[in-house]
Amino acid sequence: MVSVLIVNDQSLQRVGLRMLLTVEPDLSVVGEAASGAEAVAMSAALRPDVVLMDIRLAEADDIESIRRIARPPRPVPATGSVLAGGPPPRVLALTSTRHEGHAYAALRAGACGFLLTDAAPGELIAAVRVVAAGDAVITPALTRALIDTVRDEQPASLTLRREVGLDTLTERERDVLTAVAAGWSNTEIAVRLSIAPTTVKSHVSHILAKIGARARVQAVAFAYESGLIQPAA
Questions:
Q1: 139-170 burial string, b = 16+ CB within 10 Å, else e?
Q2: Which fold has domain 157-225?
Q3: Residue 19's pLDDT is what?
């Protein structure tokens, strides 16, 4: 059973999302929050699998809330105690904007998916399941735009923000990451590298785990930040 926390400042929309999700036998709504701050507190208390969060990306507080949910600080356990927890919730952001820069900000903050509010009900339900399973949800057109956003950044702004370096990846993983940063799909990567699509998916999963990324586009950012790929002039 996938547990979901709904975050939306409109009570009617929260009711609608709850009704949509609870009729699915494998989905359970464990709570509702009306603000980012409330979502952070409820996320820490309820530990849902997915936080379905409606955001207004002009609001800096929304991005900070995503960051605090997806990357909560690790508490220091007392001597002799066991640190409880598990993986943090995975955030699926809902927004009305199609601006790739806003999507990029949400994904960099730790969101695992980015879906427009005009998505079909079935698309939303499928996205919740995909995010809960550990994969990312981004439309192909937006993925292409996000890659272009990363590529167009100036080198001076591409500062390393992770302790992990390229030496953590195997040669094959670097090949796959290079292809991902070029915008290739798993099927295209499989054909060009003469490996099975399932092997590509496995490599991508290992890459994400090693570099501490939770979405494919975050891996693209890492490829540029680490110098594996150079931004176009």
A1: eeebbebbbebbbeeeeeebeeeeeeeeeebe
A2: Arc Repressor Mutant, subunit A (1.10.10)
A3: 96
Q: CA–CA separation, 109 vs 68, rounded Å?
A: 9
Mean pLDDT to the nearest integer, 188-217: 87
Q: Does residue 87 sit in helix, strand or coil?
A: coil
pLDDT surpassing 70 at residue 141: no
Q: For residues 52 and 94, what is the distance between their CA atoms, to the nearest angstrom?
A: 7
| pLDDT higher at 28 or 212 | 28
Query: Which residues, other chains included, contact 188 with Cβ-Cβ below 8 Å and sequence gap of 6+?
Result: 179
Q: By C-alpha distance, which of 216, 35, 83 is closest to 43?
A: 35
127 close to 148: Cβ distance less than 8 angstroms: no
What is the sign, positive or negative, of the torsion defined by CA atoms of 200, 1, 38, 42? negative
| Closest CA relative to residue 32, chosen from 47, 15, 49, 20 | 15
Indicate the domain borders of the chain: 2-138, 157-225
